[in-house]
Write a structure and sequence with these properties.
The protein is of the alpha/beta class. The chain folds into 2 domains: about 80 residues, Leucine Dehydrogenase, chain A, domain 1 (Rossmann fold, 3-Layer(aba) Sandwich), CATH 3.40.50; about 130 residues, 3-Layer(aba) Sandwich (Rossmann fold), CATH 3.40.50.720. About 40% of the residues are buried. The structure holds NADP nicotinamide-adenine-dinucleotide phosphate (NAP). The site of NADP nicotinamide-adenine-dinucleotide phosphate has 27 residues, from helix 10.
């Protein structure tokens, strides 16, 4: 039998954060007369990106933010895109800028990220902010890793002194969550191991983990027999697998094989409804932080 309290409910935690942010936004607005403003830039017609941007715009409206979405043709030049970003960099109503990734192949993603004012880089991807995160300075934590830390905090799971094994070393999840949790700071101070495809024996590492963070991008590769009894399992993965029995013909699963892991874990995030809903909540939190820093200092 699955004990319900084992399941970390990201949907409920995200809702709670968005309720708090709505109140904080009202207070900020009454004190400064300013609404936090977020600009979304979408290049091309990637259906997943369109859905994400729509969801993020809706979330902005719900907490009372000002938001603007610019949809650009897939063949736009890098120069034109950077020109638009620069206009937002100089727009006092905009405190955060998000360029939805991935960008078309002819555009240099790194150059585009670097063209965003680091003070408005609410995704936390600008090299200046990545550097600040690494050396433990205050900055924008990238949204998905920030969401993971927030899930731990609000579930009262303190990573301090624990062995955290992160599976995956991407710049948007694996590396930043490792950087966050290794800091000598509150709700961090963990011993962190990062695994990737170069790990000869993944099981050797995951078996030692007090907390496993799976950001692998492969369906259900972390199974219950790879975990230590009582481990905390944070599943970042979102994978579509065939499900002929369902209406859509597919279902979403994580990088963790939930059915076997739930029997071994002391706490686990489900997919969907775990890490996923936290990303947008943290984007909103970063945008309010950006507005505060730009207006109040
Ligand atoms: P990614 O860029 O594809 O990186 C995957 C990482 O996993 C790589 O570092 C890769 O190693 C490693 N890896 C792959 N197979 C492995 C294996 N068999 N053993 C050990 N390591 C392995 O993925 P990502 O962008 O970090 O995303 C990871 C997952 O999280 C995806 O399912 C994605 O959809 C999901 N995601 C969810 C959210 C959200 O919920 N809000 C946000 C972002 C991502 P190498 O470096 O050696 O290739």
């Amino acid at each position: 039998m699955i004990m319900r309290h084992k399941i970390i409910d990201g949907k409920a935690i995200s809702k709670q954060i968005r309720t708090e942010l709505k109140q904080q936004t009202e207070t900020f607005h009454s004190e400064t007369g300013v609404l936090p403003g977020l600009a979304f830039i979408l290049v091309g017609e990637n259906p997943a990106s369109q859905v994400y941007v729509k969801m993020k715009g809706k979330a902005c409206a719900e907490v009372g933010f000002h938001s603007v979405t610019k949809v650009l043709p897939a063949d736009i030049s890098q120069q034109e895109l950077v020109k638009l970003i620069d206009a937002f960099n100089n727009d006092p109503k905009i405190h955060g800028i998000l360029t939805q990734l991935p960008l078309p192949d002819h555009i240099d993603e790194a150059a585009v990220i670097e063209s965003i004012d680091p003070n408005k880089d609410v995704d936390g991807f600008h090299p200046i902010n990545v550097g600040k995160l690494l050396i433990g300075l205050k900055t924008f934590r990238p949204c998905t890793p920030a969401g993971i830390q927030e899930l731990l905090i609000r579930s009262n799971i303190d990573p301090a002194g624990k062995h955290v094994v992160v599976v995956g070393r991407s710049n948007i999840v694996g590396k930043p969550i490792a950087n966050i949790l290794v800091q000598k700071q509150k709700w961090a101070n963990a011993v962190v191991t990062i695994c990737h495809t170069g790990a000869r024996d993944l099981l050797y590492y995951t078996k030692q983990a007090d907390i496993v963070i799976a950001a692998v991008g492969r369906a259900e590769v972390i199974t219950g027999d790879m975990l230590k009894e009582g481990a905390v399992v944070i599943d970042v993965g979102v994978n579509r697998i065939d499900d002929p029995g369902s209406e859509k013909g597919y279902k979403l699963v994580g990088d963790v094989h939930f059915a076997s892991a739930v029997n071994v874990a002391s706490a686990i995030t489900p997919v969907p409804g775990g890490v996923g809903p936290m990303t947008i909540a943290m984007l909103l939190a970063n945008t309010l932080q950006a507005a505060r820093e730009q207006i109040v200092g």
